[in-house]
Specification:
By secondary structure, the chain is an alpha/beta fold. Helices cover 31% and strands 24% of the residues. One of its GO terms (molecular function) is flavin adenine dinucleotide binding.
Length: 458
Amino acid sequence: MDDFDVIVIGGGPVGENAAARTAAGGLRTALVEAERFGGECSYWACMPSKALLRPGHALAAARRVPGVPVGERLDVAAVLARRDAFTSNWDDSGQVEWAVGAGLEVVRGRGRLVGERQVEVDGRVLTASRAVVVCTGSVPRTPPLPGLSDVPHWTSRDATSAHEVPSSLVVLGGGVVGVEMAQAWARLGSAVTLVVSGERPLPRFEPFAGDLVTEGLRADGVTVRTNVRATGASTAGGEAVLALSDGSTASGAHLLVATGRQPATFDLGVERFGHTAGEALPVDDTGRVAGLDWLYAAGDVTGRAQLTHQGKYAARAVGTAIVTGARSPEPWTAPVATADHTAVPQVVFTDPEVASVGWTEARARDEGRDVRVVDLDIAVAGSSLHADGYRGKARMIVDERTRTLVGVTFVGPDTAELLHAATIAIVGEVTVDRLWHAVPAYPTISEVWLRLLEAYGL
């Protein structure tokens, strides 16, 4: 009973997708999970964080349209109750039911590689005839900050699962988690300070994205401190205190450390096969781990794009590759995951939203592309109708040799729904001349596509 065709370690969305693919292909598959089936995304990341953000966005959107009756503040208890509903109150029985229904053997416990095609789970050794797939995700990266280990602080899990609004909150880190949680808790009534080491938050996006998000945060009362680094952490008067590089301090009832994540390859047995705990497992585009024909990986653990949708996409490719025995398939086919080289879509669910896909201008130029950048304010009939005083920006990056898009960024309220059109254009390598014939409906915010092409000269 401990012999399987495939063993998947990690029962989050990535592992679920890999396992479902192999099971659907007729392979006896075990899905191993140490915590909750459904993983980080379901209980501590994507779903609860967006559930916390959405009510504040809805209230702000209503206030931008005269004639809509709105209250002065959010109903905190209702917001948190809805968040809890999206996490099923941290009960994974529904996910387990799904897994069993998908034909998977559910195994609870921590999986560890103990031999070729062998996984130990709490003393039980499982064997895979075809493949082992590692989908263990990532964990918060704790900075080497003096004093931090002695200061109680939140990680992203605490920030998305808290049941009381802190009177004040200091957020260390200006990445996606930092800005989203700063805004969510500010709109729920916390006095929030965001500490960012660079000129602006969201440094991996186009610069204007970080600038507009900063404006949005400050409009919600967030104190945004830029160009300062934390040099130490301590407690004083029952509060967490960060010492900053400019000689000042930032303090709050709670401290959220949101300084990035690292692959969850600790206590996994990867050292046995030449890899280092805490580092990514290098894979090819079919998900095979370098040097091994039976070990695969997908998602954050590979060091590629740390996004749930990208991990699920890679997992589907892994599952298909295992079922078909694919070794060197052509790009853009089911057994390979090459989108993360050129066309990763991502949304930052702040207000304003940031929606981007493909390369930034800096990345495109680093790649040696001859590109033309088209920048526009989002000011069309659809945006004017959407909200009074709508403020947003769009950037289109065109490879001048191929006349195809290599990057698109939108920033503004509800721009996430523009993103998939841009993703299709980039993945499909659609020329701007052909895009000219994709007519945007009037009056929608999508009309910005027409304005971008007109600005390009079509």
